[in-house]
Structure formats: structure tokens, C-alpha cells
Amino acid sequence: MRTSDTERELVAAAQRGDQDAFAGLVAMHQRKAYAIARAIVYVHEDAEDAVQEAFLRAYQALGRFRPSEPFGAWLSRIVANAALDITRRKKIRKADELSEYMPDRFSDPAESEELKRRLSSALRELGDRPRSVIVLHDVEGYTHVEIAKMLGIPEGTARSDLHHARRQLRAILVDMKEV
Amino acid sequence: MADNELEFTAEADPRSTAALRGRYAAPRDGAYWDALQARVMSRVGANGREVWWQVAAGWARPGLAAAAAVLIFAAAALLRDGGNDGEQIAFEAMTQSEPEFIYTEQDAASQRDETLRLVVSY
């Protein structure tokens, strides 16, 4: 049986209130959901919160989901919204709370401390949206159209954000050779 | 349209991309994902049930409004029909009641005969 068929059956069962079927959908999509959330928020813990919140919202909105639509695309928008809500709340709570160096639990141990420090600094300088765009595009492989839909921005904005983010990161890391 | 069309032509830098991949790598441990799924389902189990109440509560207000509208419409229709009945009864009373005196041609002839006899008798 193809994944899309399995997914369709799980969605139909979940829409009838079958929580085990919904658990199957969570297992199927949680990695992708995490990747999207992680690209938008700044730290791993917030990405986890966004994923949990997004799946809850998806479960509550299942009645409105049309089975003719791809579930993954629908879920991606919910995940992106949940992650964007977290970044907005964080901004309101304390604008400079994230200015400290954030250790990354899952980064490559071979990566030098200097590179980590510079990358953190560069990502902070990029701002939330360009950072999300470059991670979604260059790390996760989403297209401009998909990123624009997820983040609720025009495609041209996604394109321009990627351009500027790439230039900025490259400039910072090229400079590192002299360190 | 290719990603680097228009004026936005900055190519991905392999070093930056590698650094980003290292930083944004998802956890690889299967146990981590099992635990995350369990946490998600725990939240769904705790809050998901609210959904049906929320749906029911969400429908309650428009349902009451619709019921009230139906009642008002029915009452208005009843009143309107009642008014029509009244008019109908009044119309029927006027058209179907027995007249106290009906003037016929026969009456007119006998009246003429009576007058003629009176004149002849003089």
C-alpha cells in the first residue's frame, strides 16, 4: 500500500475520532514538522513546543480538513503558524532574551566552537524571517513557493530573503579563515 | 522559475550550508521521536475531548438563533393567516347572509296592478 493511501486511511479514521489513527499521522509527519518548526524558532525546545501545539491544533481542526488536500501541506502551514506564534510571544516577552549564545544539542561535534559562535551571531543578525527562509530552503530543501505559503509571505520576499541571508552568512564565514 | 532568477542570484555557500545543517540537524535517536509522539498524543488526549464540546457549544448559539428565527417566522405567519381568516369570515358574512327583503320583478308587477286597480276604482 502506498504512503498516500495509508495516510488517507489514517486521516479518515482520525476524522471519525480514532486517536490511534491520529498517532499514526503524528509518527508519519513529526520529523518534517520538527524541521519546519526548528527553522522558524531559535531553539530546539521551542521547536518541540511548536510541534506539540501544531498537532493539537491539527487534531482539533480535523473536521475542517478536506481529504482531497495533501495532509502534509496542510499540517506544514499549521506547524509554521504555531512556530511563528511562539517567536511572536518570545519577542513580546523579552526582545533580547535570545541574544545569549544558545548551545545546540544536536550539532556536529566536529564543528569548531568558533564556527558555532559565529554562526549563532550571524543567524541572530539575520532576523527571524530570513533565517527561517534560508534554513527551510538550503537545509530542508523547500521551494520558494512552499516557503511563501508556510510563512504567509509573497514568493518574491522569500526569494529576496534567501539572497540576502546567503550573502550575509557567506561574508561572515569567509572572514573566519583569518581567525 | 529557477530559484536564482531575477536579481536574487546569491548561490548557496557549501560551507554555510554545512554549518547550518549541523546546527539544525534533527535528533537521530528513535527513542526521542517515540517520546515526542507520546507527548503529542498525551496533549491530544487531554485537550482533544474539548473539541466535541467546543463544536457543540459553537453550534449551540447559531442553533438557538435559528430556532428563535423559526419561531418568530411561524408566529408571524400564523398572525398573517389569522388576519386573512378574519377578513374571509367578514367577506363571507356579507355575501352569504340571507337578505331581509329581496325586491323581485314579480313584486314590481303586483305593485303596478295594485296602483292600476286603485286608479280604475275612482
Walkthrough of the structure:
The complex is a heterodimer of chains A (179) and B (122). Chain A is mostly helical. Chain A folds into two domains: 1-99, RNA polymerase sigma factor, region 2, helix turn helix motif (Rna Polymerase Sigma Factor, Chain: A, Orthogonal Bundle), CATH 1.10.1740.10; 101-179, Winged helix-like DNA-binding domain superfamily/Winged helix DNA-binding domain (Arc Repressor Mutant, subunit A), CATH 1.10.10.10. Helix content of chain A is 73%, strand content 0%. The longest helix of chain A has 23 residues, at 71-93. Chain A is elongated, with a radius of gyration of 18 Å. Chain A starts with a helix and ends with a helix. Chain B is mostly helical. Helix content of chain B is 78%, strand content 0%. The termini of chain B are far apart. The interface between A and B is large, with 47 and 37 residues.
Helix content of chain B: over 70%
How many strand segments of chain A? Answer: 0
Biggest sheet architecture of chain B: none
Give the structural class of chain B: mainly alpha
Q: How many strands in all of chain B? A: 0
Largest sheet of chain A: none
Computed over alpha carbons, the radius of gyration of chain B is: 47 Å
Enumerate the spans of chain B where pLDDT stays under 50 for 5 or more consecutive residues: 1-5
A few lines on this structure:
The complex is a heterodimer of chains A (179) and B (122). Chain A is an all-alpha fold.
Notable traits:
heterodimer, A: mainly alpha, Rna Polymerase Sigma Factor, Chain: A, Arc Repressor Mutant, subunit A, 2 domains, B: 122 residues, mainly alpha, 78% helix
Could you give the topology of this structure?
The complex is a heterodimer of chains A (179) and B (122).
Chain A: H1 3-15, H2 19-40, H3 44-60, H4 71-93, H5 113-126, H6 128-139, H7 144-151, H8 155-175
Helix pairs in contact in A: 1-2, 2-3, 2-4, 2-6, 3-4, 5-8, 6-8, 7-8
Chain B: H1 14-24, H2 30-96, H3 105-121
